[in-house]
Amino acid sequence: MQSEFQSNRNRELLIAITAIILITVLYAFVVLQLKALPAARGLFGHSIGILGFLLMLMTETLYSLRKRSLIARWGRLSTWLEIHIITGIVGPYMVLLHTSWKFNRLAGVLMLMTIVVVASGFIGRYIYTAIPRTADGAEMESAEIERVIAGVEAEISAVQTFQGENMASTKASKKQLNRLTQRRRILRAQMGSLATARRLMSLWHTIHIPIGMLVFTTAFFHIVAAIYYATLIR
After folding, report:
1. What is the pLDDT of residue 207?
2. By residue range, what is the domain housing residue 33?
């Protein structure tokens, strides 16, 4: 249920940050070996750019395919969202390193749009977590949320009864009561803002998706131009 999603909702950020740190260490090692920033056209620059683009391509396609699939049910939707967020952070960072910190012409425009897409993704993640969801990541309807709240309140009553009958109640039951109370408060707040959150999510999709498509269209032209000017005309 939603409590599981809430408890793990920062895991993807920790994984992404860890990956970025490791990539940065590798990048610093290459800089020390070359005694200069890796050129975008060099082996390392090309490699990290290609890997970054592939991760961004995964960001754009895999989660959407899983979400819209009526047949395939491979993996939880929430797990694919975590992968979507991780690749959506790490991929652009690798592309940033690929630029060798030079933002000229089409490459500069592409990097700027990528930054906008990443920033938009963080906004979308915030809106996403404002909508109650099942452990699989599917949106919960109002009636289902009310049933969950009723179940949480029943658990709270049971814990309070246990504490009343056992004067030497354990710390575990107190922690459980605090957790359930917080869970009820979050669900009630989400219930009150559900309609607004869904409208914001719909608006966010109409902005985020076209920008993402524009980024990949621009990236395609950048790749074609890079291959042409760096390889074919030599």
Report:
1. 86
2. 2-130+194-232
